[in-house]
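Worked Example 4.2. Read the sequence first, then its structure tokens.
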Amino acid sequence: MQTKLSVDLKRDLGIISGLSMVVGTVIGSGIFFKQASVLEMAGGQTQGLLAWGLGGIITLAAGLTIAEVGSRIPKAGGLYSYIDGIYGHLMGFLTGWSQVVVYAPAVIASIGGYAAHLTANFLGLDLIWARWIGVGYICFVMGLNLLGNRIAAGFAVLTTAVKMIPIIILIVYGLFFGRVDAVGETVTQVTATPGGSFGMAVLATLFAYDGWVLVANIRDEMKNPKRDLPLSIVFGVLLILLSYLGVTYGVYRVLPAQEIVNLKDNAVFAVVKSAFGLLGGRIMSLIIIISMLGTMNGKMVAFPRMAYNMSKDGLFPNYLKNLSTKSFVPAQATITIALMAILIAAFTDSADLLSNLAIFTIWIFYVLAFIGVFILRYRQKNMQLKIDFKTPLFPITPLIGIFGGTFVVGSTLITDFKGAMASIIMVLVGIPVYYYYSNKQKHMK
């Protein structure tokens, strides 16, 4: 291993890799498992479709806004670099801290756990083995990422293609073979005691859309980041929006609303079984496992790049900025995050709790980034800058993103105040860490 002085990040990723990163990181298991809960909370099929659509529109507005922020702050590091450039080093550090130290290992361990439980059921193994299967999956994905960009990007493209197969099947089967009125059933037909509200249904879909911003972390490894980064975000989110709406409509066309709610997490499996029998259900399980490994791969690609950039800025331990001389990837950052994920997966059952708490804080930083586009336009108005992408329908588009993000933050505060406070405390713990590294830099000068 050598440092950045000897080797640099390799620019060998194109638009297909960027799109696969966006789609692969977002589409995991949510679209397959959340149909019943979103329908029940929304109160009916029409409202369910509207919830998925509104969540997608908010996400698209967020993506269009971040694409301009990225054009105005053309740095690697993703959200960390954007917040740092808009609000200063402390806020930037807290953004990276909450994602790299808390969210990244927890969400990787959580995805590994879901995939491992499905694998144990698929193979007929005792669930006692699931924990170690999850550890094995984390090691596997870490190994892929240590081999180089092309290997990780190729795996992203492959898993994205695989996970699109059931999505296309569900859409086509629902459209041409479904016999249920997909927009006709109301909440009185779904359940006598509604399980939520339309607002909470939208909130659930926003979490299912989350993860697209991580593509910004690989900016310095794109062949043409000025063109490919905004295109990856915009077209990736559009593809996800159409996929989610299509799957939802397809499921609604095949199964009555009451049956979807009764089946809970198994609604999509029921559609596949009706089309292809028990074999179809097993194939679906296998595809979802592959899908989740693709999502884990996207996280493993993105978060070490953030740690690498924070280390280069003197805000994380120096060894994290070391690159492999063979594969030109931030190998030590990748290994470190993977080891933290393995510890969580092997010795605790709190990965879901940690990742859910961290998602709340990430949305706070999202909102700050959306507001940042107004700040940057004002700050740079007299500068002779070539901006490669500007948010269309400004200021309406960023305002939609701000509204959506504020809704996520506010809803979480109302529904899980203790959890939200725990999230904020986890972020505030980073303040003394920031000042430690900041003072260390001053003494070195």
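Now turn to a second chain, presented in exactly the same format:
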Amino acid sequence: MGEAGRIERIGHRGARRIAALAVVVALTVAACGDDAEPTAADQVPAVAPDDDGLVPFCEDVPPPGPVAQGELARTANPDVILMGVLQTYGQEHAESFGGLWIDRSAGSIVLAFTDDPAPHRAAIAELRPSPDDVAVVEPRPEITETTTVAESGTTVDLVQVAHTEAELLAVSEEVVGSMDELGIIGVGVKTDLNRVSIDLRLADAEIRAAVGELGPIDALCVNGPTEPPVPIDPATVDLLAVGDDELVSCDGYTFPHSALDEPGDLLDSDDPLAEAVRADLPNIGSEPDDLFAMEWRVLSRGDSEALVGGGTPPSVLLRLVEDRGRWRSEMGAVGAPCTLRRAVPEGVEAVTWALDPAYPEPGADATELHVLVSSSACSSGEPLGDRLIGPQVEVTDDEVAVAFAAAPLPAGAYTCQGSPPDAVVVTLDEPVGDRTIVDALDLPPRPPVAAADPLFG
């Protein structure tokens, strides 16, 4: 339909440097047409069973209807000209249009309608691109082909749902009006569930019942803890303890340190994860050959979730999920090799620190270290303050190792404009001498960079 282009996406995982997967816009295979007949199942709106009469959790809501299997690459977006054709059709049928999304596990584009999908299916199959279509990106690529949607080579599926996109947007506006009184910290339309997704500070039964008064229960779903968080006692947090197989953090991803000792031959194996990674690598970087030449290994793996890394230490990280029997990349980081750090205890926030450049570097006689402690977490511009844990200090014959962390912020919504570092004085029991001052959480421990914060220094 149109000339392939490239879209850059930036993801944030709480690290200083995370570049999300660069996804290539391209067409793949299969069709929306006569061979894609509607089934009885895609004529019935999908409604989650609400046995307790409460708004369900979003993770428990089934997706609406069956989805045809296509071959759209898991880290690729469909052609923007095709997406403009489909978005335009949806706008022209707003009275029944339930939204549009890309089903990554099925490799297809899905459109939802509240009425019978069959007439829409036939009409969409015959659509051709037009200069008057919605511009999905600006500037819109030139239309170089005028093939129909059915001829495009991309699988387009239709399902029936209970609510139009316009209805969901109206419900979301009602929810926004009750954010403060119910502890709502985020609201959004979750098109692929045909629900308004509501993030809560606390999602217990009482709050879920109150949320149900804001709109039809089958148009809502919630996310959040069912019990309030347990306060952290800083006195019980040991940042210097090292286990037999300690967890390490790499650009916000956590895995056992021993995983890096495994052979880096994942791509040469017949592991289903290897198949998914091999399919994704051409779409996530400008030099695929370099990516294929890396050592790749599984860093952690569960029943339906895995983390794989390329390089030692990893410079590429891919989080994969298994859905309907296929592994696909859901999020990733690409950049320079990460700085490995010991993972802080569960529920504690990782921070970084550096020697304060406003003071001379500590000499052999120094018994005080002037440091700046910084957090990358969104905190509405507030410093760490009373949340700071540490300093915890360990002195050996060769090193003065110092560690900091922070208690988590209370549940809520925070802006991400950056926060000023906290100036802290670390008092030592004896002079530094000829020891090296290091950040105890870096692996291996290394001297902290003596530099002012780029935003606040």
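Notes for the reader: The two ends are 51 Å apart (CA to CA). Residues 347-439 form one domain.
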